Amino acid sequence: MGLFGRDGKGNPFDWLVVGLGNPGEKYANTRHNVGEDALRLLAERRGETLKGGKDNALLAETRFGPPGNDQRVALAFPITYMNESGRAVGALARRFRIESPEQIIVIQDELDLPPGEMKLKAGGGLAGHNGLRSITQHLKTQDYLRVRIGVGKPDSAHVGKVHVLAKIPKRQREVLDVAIVEAADAVEMIIADGIDVAMQRYNRSR
Questions:
Q1: Fewer CB near the last or first residue (10 Å), C or N of the chain?
Q2: How confident is the model over 124-129, as a mean pLDDT?
Q3: Is residue 63 a part of any domain in this protein?
Q4: With the C-alpha atoms ordered 28, 34, 38, 41, is the resulting torsion angle positive or negative?
């Protein structure tokens, strides 16, 4: 039945959580891959390992929440390059029979937030993020949820690509590691309590 509708093949998953980044050792520990870092932390907390499979993604199928009230969650890291992330996300939304874009959580790096700041967003603009642009093209909607991990802006716009693909300096790495843990916590709260409760918790002034 295409995106966001039942197709009659068993029960749909409750959530699709996507951590954005670029594949390969070359891009590990870069600003652009903080979404992947948070996703791997979520998998690790559940004793899961992301494994290769169909749909251009590393994937773990798991459950969040207490027995009897748990929710089926797919954790995915697209192994396309960032600007093709939507190819994987669109295919996974169909595969797991996701019924609404509000059941898709995308964890991303965010130039418009200071390093280490973490904010949540439901829908809205793309802020020039190539991964979000690709996802929006394939889902045909911007209404999915975002967990935004601030990586700060470079001094000049023309070095933005260099900035996000550079290895993270030690001092900033420590700040981002805290934000990555917070991002994983926020995903868990969204799934347990809903996006509005999570936004009240994490988007307030500190």
A1: C
A2: 88
A3: yes
A4: positive
Give CA–CA dist 196/36, Å, rounded. Answer: 24
Catalytic residue among 32, 129, 138, 163: 32
- Whether 196 is in a domain gets the answer yes
Distance of alpha carbon 32 from alpha carbon 34, whole angstroms = 6
* CB half-sphere exposure, 29, CA atoms < 13 A: 9
| 161/43 Cα distance (integer angstroms) | 28
List, in sequence order, every residue forming a beta bridge with 59; answer none if it has no partner. Answer: 51, 76
- CA 200 to chain centroid, in Å, comes to 19
Residues 70-89 have a mean pLDDT of: 96
**152 DSSP assignment:** -
The number of C-alpha atoms within 13 Å of 49 and in the hemisphere containing its C-beta is 2
Average pLDDT over residues 23-34: 90
Q: Cα dihedral angle (8, 123, 150, 94), rounded to 10 degrees? A: 20
Amino acid making up residue 206: R
Tokens coding 201: 């918790």
Residue 8 lies in a domain: no
Expressed as residue numbers, the domain containing 19 is 15-202
| Phi and psi, residue 140, nearest 5° | 60, 30
Whose tokens are 């929006």? That residue is 136
For the stretch 152-171, pLDDT in tens is: 887 665 566 677 777 788 88
32 is catalytic: yes
The CATH number for 30's domain is 3.40.50.1470
